[in-house]
Amino acid sequence: MVKGAVVLLTKYATPAGIRRAGEARIAAWLRNQGCYNAKTIAAKAVAAAHAQRTTLHAQGIGAEIVTALARNVLDLHEQVADIEKRIEARFQEHQHAQILLSMPGFGTLLSAELLSATGGDITSYDSAARLAGVAGLAPVPRDSGRISGNYHRPKRYDRQLLNAFYLAAQSAARYCPQSRTYYQPKRAEGKNHKQAVLSLARRRLNVLWAMLRDGTPYQQPTVLAAQ
Q: How many whole angstroms separate alpha carbon 41 and alpha carbon 45?
């Protein structure tokens, strides 16, 4: 929807121009530009144009600027898409690519981010606990006086690593049954969403580290039980 609206502004940048073109014409033009939700965008644009009847003195110049900016945004969008394709192609060449992609929640970009943060080899860390410490997923005690059991994230950790594990866990909590089964009891214990996701991320880090150490892809527990 957002991209379609930007495409619209490259040709129709004023309410008057949108009103003159009409919904059918705009929708047909958007479809020719590859916008799949063309009808919806055209309908909303025409409705907004009919609600706006005020004409500004510098409206023509403003429309030219908006059109130029919209084209720049589309150019940037194409550049980002091209970079993502290059990242994916390079990532697929890595020896651990298919193992990482088998882990629920890890897509191409997050997997590439993880490899980048670990120097391309997650098993270079001598244990999952060591990796968790670097990723900020192994809380350290900050006891003082009579207070004990006070755990916090370490002051120094790799934010790129934490981001990769956190986002993957957050996705898995929604779409992976096994991860959701672990996440929901954590919420029932009183943990907020972020705390529950971090707890899940720590558990999944152990699994992923073992997968890469052994060179085995992720398997659903039901498959393991059947074997």
A: 6
